[in-house]
Amino acid sequence: MSEDHLLREAQRAGKLPGLPQNHFIDGAWRASAGGGMMESFDPGSASPHASFAAGDADDVAIAVASARRAGEGAWKKILPRERGHVLSRTADLIRQHGERLAIAEVLDSGKTISEARGDVAGAARCFDYYAGAADKNEGKSFPLGEDYASFSINEPVGVTAHIIPWNYPLSTTARSVAPALAAGCTAVVKPAEQTPMTALILAELLHQAGLPDGVCNVVTGTGAAVGATLAAHPDISHITFTGSTATGINVMQAAARNVASVTLELGGKSPNVVLADADLDLALDNVVGAIFENAGQICSAGSRLVIERSIHAEFIERLVQRAKTLRMGHGLSERVNFGAINSAEHLAKVSSFLDGARARGLSIATGGRATVDPGTGKGWFFEPTVVDNAGWDDPVVQEEIFGPVLAVQVVDDFDEAIAAANCTPYALVAGIFTRDLSKAHRFARDVDAGQVYVNEYFAGDIETPFGGNRKSGIGREKGLIAVQSYCKVKSVTIRV
Predict the structure, then answer these.
(1) For this structure, is 265 an active site residue?
(2) Active-site residue, from 265, 293, 308, 477
(3) What is the pLDDT of residues 398-425, one digit of tens each?
(4) Long-range CB contacts for residues 366-371, cutoff 8 Å, separation at least 24
(5) Of the residues 293, 299, 308, 487, which is catalytic?
(6) Domain spanning 271-461: CATH superfamily
(7) 88-140 confidence digits (pLDDT tens)
(8) Domain 3-266+473-492 adopts which CATH fold?
(9) pTM over 0.85
């Protein structure tokens, strides 16, 4: 079926035929040990579009055992360059099946087809990148003098757990599984219960690319039944988790009981600073994208606008006008550029923040209410929202809303902008728009964040390390540093 026909059929039927329903364990589809099933809902229509296996502790045990056998057997014997070939073939298969992956992502997550296609392209690029890293995971030599040969070896840590969020299911799976496989580890993936489909499809593509049975397993189900069990499993050596700070703390506590290492990419309340000397057209484009892409459901979203008072009124007026031009609707429509909120539960959470803001008398410049697809009257949507001139200690500034809600903080000068940027417990991303490179460098120095963007929000790519400080997490994903997360270092010293 052609890509155009595949999209038209999905638009007509509201579903995608042939989606997987079972776990992917030991190189094959496997029904849940308990026989349970769950529904996956299409946020754009607020209706189920597919069903999938509801896993439990037995499924986790089977998957981890499979991963352990594979890591001690077939995968261990494969040369690093051959691991790279598997990852490279996977990248090619992702591109070949790109439209199917993108449509499945839209139906599961609610994002637009354009956004989903971008995620697919990024996932393929991720596997390309780590394919090249597989045979370059080099150790070091240590200068102990002529009587010794001393060197280190990077060895895979073993079985790794990957607990995936619902906002970027394919992207987040790719960015953690690809470096783990490049390092020689095996993986058990637990996708979010709201968005299981692309992780399952990816596991099948990895198998088609030549990945041995058991190297990458996917177990679907709830966080309580599958995620918590996986995080606490004694044979898991490393856990990569992306999600809320509260759940990340639980994952870290579970890992500590087995002395497993963790990579945690958690919450964010990232500032996007616009100074009076900035290119305001450029800044406006980036502020809109930073908070309204994926309906604001991004850990690193620019969810706070910190702006100098002298340009505040004009900029907000233009920002509100832009927000009102966004075309909301079901993500499978190519006319749409603003998608749905992922679930009814999350929509209620976003709404509660704005209900509170109105009760406290905050100025809501635009938006602020739950709504529906204007074409069908269905779905879980929230209006693009700007809360103007919010107090620094207000919940809309301090707490992660994880929706299309921009909190505006007005400042009088550059030093106050830095203070505003640092005023929350999160430290994931910070952006600044200025023509003054001295101020840009000082901002990068003085703001606590895992990454700083200057004159382009969401700058960087798979090569750029990504992660947060403080309540935004521990460790880094992407870049070559991610491979090291899945390695244990062995030093060898020989007297000659």
Answers:
(1) yes
(2) 265
(3) 999 999 999 999 999 999 999 999 999 9
(4) 366/320, 366/323, 366/324, 367/323, 367/404, 367/405, 371/328
(5) 299
(6) Aldehyde Dehydrogenase; Chain A, domain 2 (3.40.309.10)
(7) 999 999 999 999 999 999 999 999 999 999 999 999 999 999 999 999 999 99
(8) Aldehyde Dehydrogenase; Chain A, domain 1 (3.40.605)
(9) yes
